[in-house]
## 1
Amino acid sequence: MMFQPDIETLPREELEKLQLRRLQALCRKLYANVPFYRRRFEERGITPDHIKTLRDIRLLPFTEKQDLRNNFPFGLFAMPKENIVRLHASSGTTGKATVVGYTRRDIDNWSDCVARGLAMAGLTSSDFIHVAFGYGLFTGGLGAHYGAERLGATAIPASGGSTKRQAQLIRDFGATGICCTPSYALHLYDAAVEQGIDFRELPLRVGVFGAEPWTEEMRRDVEQKMGITAIDIYGLSEVMGPGVAVECATGRNGLHVQEDHFLAEIIDPDTGEILPEGESGELVLTTLTKEGIPLLRYRTRDITSLSCTPCSCGRTFARLKRFTGRTDDMLIIRGVNVYPSQIEAILLETEGLSPHYQIIVDREGTLDSVEVQVEVSGANFSDTVRDLQKREQMVQKNIKEFLGVSTKVRLVEARTIDRSEGKAVRVLDKRKLKA
Ligand code: DLL
């Protein structure tokens, strides 16, 4: 079942006409209302009138995460504050987070996109959907929640945490669908097993998982353990939140981009050139309908490829392949985005620590674990063990407070962390996620 079949099956020619109209309107709006974009247009010697075909998108400037940070918090908003009904933000240290604002219509469109996605996954208005993405500034919880309600299903706002209790809730309420990160699904499974709850015997039948990279192996594992169909959902806060692209249960061969709302390109991350269909590169997204903070050619840093070949589900929206990684060093730890530089900043603010550190990421059972090893500067290692422990705990607390991830911090003696000859190896990711 499709949530909005008229749009989801629009012939591609018509879809492209719609995209062009929307892109032109967007350029006019940004040129008139957002000084940042007006400057960018002027630097390139273009005006919105230069956009005559969809291919002309190559004339337009890219937008990067740094642009949002430089204009923190509201510099890229295209609407007066009175029209903004909601804010979300990506995780990050204060002042460095990226903030996004939604108008009433933005929330409506977002709800539609997620409702379409849940329908693609095989959920309907009679389903009970357990939402275990975090509720808060993160877009996962509220995004999935509004989508579930828009579909007419019953949303169960479980949010993150209290995992044992969540397993009981799923049993007691008879949830038929669940939304969370794929690694949390596996964690939930373990918590259920510990209590003698067998998900396979419960009505649960569909999982909609995303917010972090996962593999076909993980899909098979979670499907088999929980007795469900597992579907991939993609999105990012800067562009909207979950629901930018979602896999359909029929084709299960890539994630359909909601192309009436987003224009997707794949570029060569080094040259910025647009790559032909099917080639792997960096996904770039332009928001076609967003009002609060529309973005032109936003560089997601996510690596994938795009295909417009027809899908057996009947939808005409192009599909993205499962994501294989990123072009930058961003880590996703239990669904929270973390840059090594943010951890570094916290270490360097702590007296007595040196800039030599390594972040070791692993997956213990089903959950990500992070150990931060950092060298103390020469004189300080003679401190008592108690002092060192105190300092470790303080850094741990600061990382948790500012970045939202739990880590284990270990202070080590000076010169014990391997020095590399070229770039320092800051991150050791042992999770082996690559398919
Ligand atoms: O993670 C939004 C979201 C919530 C998506 C719930 C899906 C479900 P951010 O916190 O801004 O937003 O992180 C966005 O997460 O650029 C990708 O690197 C990664 N990511 C999101 N979904 C997937 C996925 C949300 N299905 C960043 N596969 C993105 C791989 C994903 N990576």
## 2
Amino acid sequence: MRDLFDGDIVDQRDVQLAPGAMLLAGFARPLEGALIDAVNAIIARAPFRHLFTPGGHRMSVAMTNCGRVGWVSDRTGYRYDPIDPVGGHPWPQMPAVFADLAARAAAKAGFADFRPDACLINRYEPGAKLSLHQDKDELDFNAPIVSVSLGLPATFLFGGLNRSDKTVRYRLIHGDVVAWGGPARLAYHGVMPLAEGEHPLLGSQRINLTFRKTR
Ligand code: MD3
Ligand code: FE
């Protein structure tokens, strides 16, 4: 992330949540239709599924992926896998609209040349949550993770480098994009149980895209 120079225009919907964590509020809004169409094409071939943790717990968030590899969890552990274990075939390709959005958002947040090779797609229905965790299954922690929120709003928890560090809560709404890099890259984070609601485009759900460079 670079410092500002004299003459730079500052978008006031861009907010640094923490060092390395830049919220681009509403950045994905202009693409909402194309993004939802792309998600629907992906889930026709790689449906949402509830993964099990290595500890044997069924996750309340349903997941799928697109890109060269996808994040999977089962009794043997977590990994990035080129094959969707449900269908036994490669994950759907990452649509250009996804890759372009992720790269533009990362650049705007100060992370040049972000080329993700995986996109994990999370679906929250009311009550679904994601417990506090770190994203550390990727090999390159120099690259940021870019997240895109669609549908119902969520309360996101952002902590520190230790699980016991205090957490701050942020509301993430439809169209919000966040780039998480630098000192934020290995911060603990999670999502509070999704509240009931009805979104005009997505109904009673929240969909979150996370773009990752895994190697
Ligand atoms: C901060 N997803 O998929 S997105 C995940 O809303 C995940 O579905 C949440 O955590 C969701 O792993 C949060 C925001 C996010 C994503 C990755 C991060 C925040 C992050 C990685 C490091 C630090
Ligand atoms: Fe995460």
